Amino acid sequence: MTQHAYMIGSGIGNLAAAVYLIRDGGWSGDQITMYGLNTHGANDGDTVEAYTKEYSGPKLANTKGFLAEGGRMLNDATYENLWDLFRSIPSLDNPGQSVTDDILDFDQAHPTHDVARLMDKTNGLRISGKNSYSKMQFSMKDRALLTKLMMMPEKDEEKLNDLSIAEWFKNSPHIFTTNFWYMWETTFAFKKESSAMELRRYMNRMILEFSRINTLEGVTRTPYNQYESLILPLRQYLTDKGVEFVSNVKVTAFDFADTALRDDIIVNGLEIEDVVSGKKTKIKIADDDYVFDTNGAITDSASIGDLDTAIVENKEYAPSAALWKQATEHFYSLGNPDKFFNDRPQSEWMSFTVTTNNHYLLNQIVRITQQQPGNALNTWVDSNNLLSIVVHHQPHFKAQKENESIFWGYAMFPRENGDYVDKPFIEMTGREILTELIGHLNEVDDSADKIGDHLDEIWQSIVNVIPVYMPYASALFNRRAVGDRPAVVPEHSKNLAFISQFSEMPFDMVFTEQYSIRAAQLSVYKFLGISQSKLTKLHHYEKDAKILARAMKTMFR
Q1: Which residue ranges traverse the bilayer (predicted)?
Q2: Catalytic annotation on 202?
């Protein structure tokens, strides 16, 4: 009988697992079935209209323009699995090239160099002086505690169980007023309440980027949004190989085998619901089949508004985590989803996408920030919501017209009132969010002819502003203890793997495509008996004396 793999969730982790089964395991595509609620997943980017046609899509009055719920930075130095995987995926735009070739060629032609990383009402652009964004602003206590955290051996991670970053730095809260923290917090979406354990991993894995966190020169950008640049080529490759994609369905329960001591984890069935018709079916899983589950997705339960409509908060517990939770009721060793999906203040933030019908607003932002599109983040450090924007290289979408501009932004603290719109960010329409942003731009505009003097021109250019509330956007950074995340292939599991940002692997860091792809490779190799020595090799820059010396020098900058 032919083996089969069942993928629960159609995000980058399971797409990668399917590639590894085919490329390294010798499977054929027709042995793989991919179940998903929609086609976009966390690595998104499309027209607003396309989103409204998804099962979980919003019903909006204004469906014009484009939407990107989020965007993750890539990194040439530390995304080893991503580059290896996408070398096997043909480019959709350049015949004969791989997706990896596409991205690295684009990045070489459009390198990132941020010149307006931090801004505030008093100093404007923090380009020079004592508050220059090139200065980390550490105290000796800050340095000592950060170094101590970084140097902690991996075997001692348990000492950081349930410890927040704020608790680790309780004797030096000064660090949260430094340029370093503002840049680190908004580059990676950490909060003071986030996990000190994960910060330790980041300080090790991203130590190469520590010395250039102010310019973000280590950021590698895709030619277009990540849905079109990464996900669509993957899906096309797998479709061409014969993989079956089933959308508008969710897996609601595992059926586990009743083993003698209830210690072996064997999935012998799945309960599946068609979310359009409501029809429920059961699928039998053979003993030699494999199940790959996305146990948690950070875009679950997202709520979307438009130019004149605020979001309506979706209070639903994350569907992907609900399935994980059902598994934990059978086996105590599968972690604790509530640590990540039951604390919205710790994990929530909001994003917004602006579409304009000309380049007037984009050119105003370029003038004020003194940097061209494609140069990463601009953050207002004294904004109530901790507001940031990213003006991508244009076009950011393939369907974007020559006259259109797109940019994206996010607010780390959506429950706080705006500085220029007197209501919580989460209650703002797209129009009010843009009003808030223009207020901040106007404050740092040092010209006599300020952006605030041109509101008529700006509003005439606006096609749409799409706010997105994501209750679990930073859930992967929530405080955790060892054991709160299940192993990628749990002990005693015969056919169930967890591929997500909420599974446990040594060394690597979450909120990266790298983490999901690494989990995919690890699970496939373990199930198929491929030697772990053949796993993609990871760099250990934290052991490189030159890089450590550079980091130490940066600490005193």
Answers
A1: none
A2: yes
